[in-house]
Design brief:
Butyryl-CoA Dehydrogenase, subunit A, domain 3; 3 domains; 4-stranded mixed beta sheet; 52% helix; binds coenzyme a persulfide
């Protein structure tokens, strides 16, 4: 049986997210982009509405949604402000998911409930100055000291790096063991020896805050080790498999926004005595945009459905991310082309979509990494 119909709950979530974005997010989006203003008030309200614990089970205060409903929401938020999409995606599909699936009862009680309500904002830090795509080369080390771990190292490209309350941090507990010596820790923001620094001045996603983290003998209680000593790399890889579906949805949202702006503009703008949408070259661009968005959305929803039905979604999430982020970049570039000079200035917003789309091909695994993941899965299944 195959169905392309969304459930009633997914449609309700999509409608609620769309209403919220139009009423609460759209009015300030340009100001936040231009001035790099973090959307604190918006996140606070999203917590009250249940969007900070979308997939968390109700017993921990979450909304208990499936992945399909979650990505419908991420797509809607990203259509209006991709930075909000990013913050929500990292918080929900990396941080919440890790604490819920790998955390123990103590960690879930203490942290997941607060993450799900929005009282705490979560950040995820795997990347380092010398460990990006090659994630096993972690230089941050964790040394046992009585009932604590002492963590030392530098993390970078951390979404919500200076605004989060809880950080998932990966570190080497045994260098000799390579990726099997990496462990995962939960660190509270005011932990002694832990600090965030150097807020990045980014090309896009300017209202999300991206920082480096410094750890100098940061004191982390042993109760905050997640998933056991040496279990960290598996946690990182498995959470990124799910996180990538969120980034694919973000890219679909950005692409959809660029397409809708282009469709509207092409009907209003006249050249050579007719609306430009009546020129076949513009029609070709619009047709390509719509077709690629449809294909990207189908890949993304299929990956989410595989995850919800407990099937292997490694290849599907990598394919969805690879394709959706590629077409989002193509479509936002074409959107500027359709708008001509107006596309190059802030007022028409498509230049923001173009800037926001770029990083989707880079974070949570570059497009090059997605090719590797897909090829490995193909070869595994021969
Ligand atoms: N899902 C689950 N497990 C995975 C996995 C995945 N997608 N990819 C790798 N693993 C597992 C492997 O099965 C292996 O497990 P075992 O030790 O039990 O055999 C282990 O992880 C190590 O894998 P591998 O030997 O393939 O490691 P490599 O160093 O060769 O490469 C890649 C792994 C490149 C796939 C990994 O480093 C990666 O995904 N890099 C990108 C990291 C990333 O996305 N960074 C962005 C961070 S957020 S800004």
């Amino acid at each position: 049986m195959i169905s392309f119909e969304m459930s009633e709950i997914t449609e309700q979530i999509r409608t609620a997210a769309r209403k919220f974005t139009q009423e609460e997010i759209a009015p300030g989006v340009i100001d936040r982009d231009v001035n790099s203003i973090f959307p604190s008030d918006i996140l606070h309200t999203l917590g009250e509405l249940g969007f900070m614990g979308m997939m968390v089970q109700p017993e921990y205060g979450g909304s208990g949604l499936d992945t399909v409903s979650y990505i419908a929401a991420i797509e809607e938020f990203s259509k209006v402000e991709a930075s909000v999409g990013t913050i929500l995606s990292v918080h929900n599909s990396l941080v919440n998911w890790i604490v819920e699936y790998f955390g123990n009862d103590f960690q879930k009680e203490k942290y997941l409930t607060r993450l799900a309500s929005g009282e705490f904002l979560g950040a995820f830090s795997l990347s380092e100055p010398e460990a990006g795509s090659d994630a096993t080369r972690q230089h941050t080390i964790a040394v046992k000291d009585g009932k604590n771990w002492l963590l030392t190292g530098t993390k970078n490209w951390v979404t919500s790096g200076s605004t989060a309350d809880i950080y998932i941090v990966f570190a080497q507990t045994n260098k000799e063991l390579g990726h099997k010596g990496i462990s995962c820790f939960l660190i509270e923001k005011d932990t002694p020896g832990f600090s965030s620094s150097k807020k990045e001045d980014k090309m896009g996603l300017r209202s999300s805050d991206t920082c480096s983290l410094g750890l100098l003998n940061a004191v982390v209680p042993e109760d905050n080790l997640i998933g056991g000593v040496g279990g960290g790399f598996r946690i990182a890889m498995e959470s990124l498999n799910g996180g990538r579906i969120g980034i694919a949805a973000q890219a679909v949202g950005i692409a959809q926004a660029a397409y809708e702006a282009s469709l509207k503009y092409s009907q209003e703008r006249h050249s050579f005595g007719k609306p430009i949408c009546e020129h076949q070259l513009i029609q070709q661009k619009l047709a390509r945009m719509a077709t690629n968005i449809e294909a990207a959305r189908l890949l993304t929803y299929k990956a989410a459905w595989l995850k919800d039905t407990h099937q292997n979604y490694i290849q599907a999430s990598a394919m969805a991310k690879l394709f959706a982020t590629t077409i989002a970049n193509d479509i936002t570039r074409e959107a500027i082309q359709i708008h001509g000079g107006y596309g190059y200035v802030r007022e028409y917003q498509v230049e923001r979509f173009f800037r926001d789309a770029k990083v989707t091909e880079i974070y949570e695994g570059t497009s090059e990494i997605q090719h590797i993941v897909i090829a490995r899965e193909l070869l595994k299944n021969c």
